Amino acid sequence: MQKTSTSDVRISPLWNLKSIWLTLLLLHGTILFAQAQNVTGQVLDPNNTPIPGANILVKGTTTGTATDADGKYSVDVQGDNPILIFSFIGYSAQEVPVDNQSVINVTLQTDEQMLEEVVVVGYGTLQKRDLTGAVSQIKADKLENENPNAVQDILRGNIAGLNVGFTTSAKGGGTLQVRGQQSLNANTSPLLVVDGAIYYGELADINPNDIESIDVLKDGSSAAVFGAKAAAGVVLITTKKGKLGKPTVTLNSNIGLATMSVHEPVYGPNEFVAWRTDVFKSIDVDHFLQPHRYDDPRNLPADITIDQWAAYDGSSPADPITVWLQRLNMQPVEIENYKAGRTVNWYDMMFQQGFRQDHTVSLSARNEQMSYYMSLGYLKNDGVVVDDEFSTVRTRINVEGKVNNYLSIGMNTQFAVRDESAVPVAWTNLRALSPWASEFNDDGTYRYLPNGEQSGGRHPFAASSATDRLQKFTTLTLLRILNFTTDSITNRLNIRTGQPSVDAPPDKTGRPTIGRLTTCSNGIKPLMTFTPST
Q1: Partners of 381 in the beta sheet?
Q2: Hey, is 353 helix, strand or coil?
Q3: Regarding beta strands 245-258 and 197-198, do their DSSP bridges make them parallel or antiparallel, or are they unpaired?
Q4: How confident is the model at residue 233, as a pLDDT?
Q5: In sequence order, which residues have a C-beta less than 8 Å from that of residue 257 and are 6 or more positions away?
Q6: Are the CB atoms for 67 and 51 separated by under 8 Å?
Q7: CB 46 within 8 A of CB 82
Q8: Given CB 3.0 to 4.6 Å as the disulfide criterion, which of 9, 22, 108, 359 pairs with 91?
């Protein structure tokens, strides 16, 4: 048995040696396969001019680089059949397989579709290839999945150089500023132009679902078109029209919840008492002469009796809890509620999850003789603050017909009713309210001063419950369009009539404003403004 065992031991080193060589060979092939391959080259335009800053990305990975000032690049690739993606603004992207090539030169072709896009510039339209000036455009249909409730939602974060404010109210919206604050006293809001006519109404009256595109003029050329009114920039809004084909019915319906993104709760009942204890200890610099003067008498150390503690200010030891809370300057109603264990959660009373809904239905079509677009929208938002509500009904009718080869007429009509009657609770009082205060009086009415102290805050529901406000705005905007062609030149005449709500401010003479008529020739600038009144 021992000889047999010795014979086996002598054979196994040879077998192990073969196994080791085979393993090393496999590892060597694996290492060679996993090594990165370096690819270099140059990126040119159709005129063989180097393109600096072009992007090169290894498809399916995050590995990439950019060309230098001479259009040259160098990138490491690895894996099975790697593919390089070459791209640059204004050019069509190209995908090139590496196929063991070490040098890959690419010529990017101009993206003709992008250059053929039409941009509204105030005095007409231009193709992007012919555009000179600071103009930014956004197509509203690219943001439909974001469910914009207001025009500002379309612009926010999508137009370079345009600052869009934000408000957390149910109405939403926000201010607009082109390239920041340009004046200390003058108006810094950009001029609004809708379908070629200056728009004096609220952006809240425009349904985002009715918008085809928005162009923003940001440089001095806007002032050359619209005059001094455009000193702070121009926002050009183009609404939808009918498209060739059969009539199309579109339904857009969205529902959701508005919630607090960050909760900042105030002190609870016990934290509120501990906070007042710390405050009075910091105010009374001599409190160390009277140890535990502002501490709960139920938690006194063994070397201090209740009688000693009460004698600090000559109080009776019969009711130490009342003495302690009075030292913390808590009011009688707070002391009563503390003993009874009654508290108020003001935070939960003031904030909520707001239900939101937005529904729009539209009908549109176009043929060789006529184009129309009609829509009806309803929006109702509840804010995160209780009793903060906003609702609006918005409708639009855009119609244009061709009379003959050189004349077409049309009308764009917008009607909106906004309800801003709701009075939200005064949530800013939250920081001053005591959780030990009382919410109601004995007769069930709201207690205006919940803790009976002037500095203790006002009841957040007192003002809203005592206010019965009706604040509705009704606007009707008519834009009559007349297009006529002479000698291959298309002229456009816009006549805009605005009917504001009954709450519209009076004019300079003190008479109520009934309507506004603005006439434009070629869309260049207003030639006449007429304000009739009763």
Answers
A1: 356, 390
A2: coil
A3: unpaired
A4: 84
A5: 353, 354, 355, 356
A6: yes
A7: no
A8: 108
Tens of pLDDT, residue by residue over 24-67, are: 444 444 444 446 789 999 999 998 999 998 999 998 888 889 99
Please give the single-letter amino acid code of residue 267: Y
Q: Is 52 exposed, middle or buried (0-12, 13-18, 19+ CB in 10 A)?
A: middle
Query: What tokens appear for 11 in the block?
Result: 């054979």
**CB neighbours of residue 402 within 10 Å:** 16
Residue 8 vs residues 1, 5, 13, 59, 533: alpha-carbon distances, Å: 11, 5, 10, 55, 117
Q: Which two tokens stand for residue 512?
A: 């109520």
Tokens of 490: 């298309």
pLDDT digits (tens, 9 = 90+) for 274-284: 999 999 999 88
The two three-digit tokens of residue 438, written as one number: 């009382």
Q: Closest Cα partner for 54 from 46, 45, 78? A: 45
Question: Quick check: 394 and 151 in contact, CB under 8 A?
Answer: no
Beta-bridged to residue 516, according to DSSP, are 498
Query: Which residue intervals of the chain bear CATH 2.60.40.1120?
Result: 37-112
DSSP code string of 395-446: EEEEEEEEEETTEEEEEEEEEEEEE-------GGGGGG--TTS-SB-TTSSB
Give the amino acid at 490.
T
Spatial distance between the Cα atoms of 169 and 361, rounded to a whole number of angstroms: 25
Query: Can you list the residues of the chain whose pLDDT is less than 70?
Result: 1-35, 112-133, 182, 186, 220-224, 484-534
Q: Would you say the C-alpha torsion 9, 12, 14, 17 has a positive or negative sign?
A: negative
pTM above 0.85, yes or no: no
CB distance 156 to 166 below 8 Å: yes
CATH of domain 37-112: 2.60.40.1120
Helix (H) or strand (E) holding 217: strand 211-217
Q: Give the DSSP letter of residue 448.
A: S
Beta carbons within 8 Å of 222's beta carbon, 6+ residues apart: 122, 191, 230, 233, 234
Is the domain defined by 115-241 classed in CATH 3.90.1150.10? Answer: no
Secondary structure (H, E, C), 79-112: CCCCEEEEECCCECCEEEECCCCCECCEECCECH
Q: How far apart are CA 411 and CA 399, in angstroms?
A: 5
Cα–Cα separations (whole angstroms), residue 266 to 243, 305, 404, 434, 462: 55, 34, 70, 10, 20
User: Cα–Cα distance between 217 and 176 in angstroms, integer?
Assistant: 13
Q: Is 246 exposed, middle or buried (0-12, 13-18, 19+ CB in 10 A)?
A: exposed
Q: Give me 78's structure tokens.
A: 């690895």
- Distances, alpha carbon 100 to alpha carbons 78, 80, 104, 469, in Å: 10, 10, 10, 76
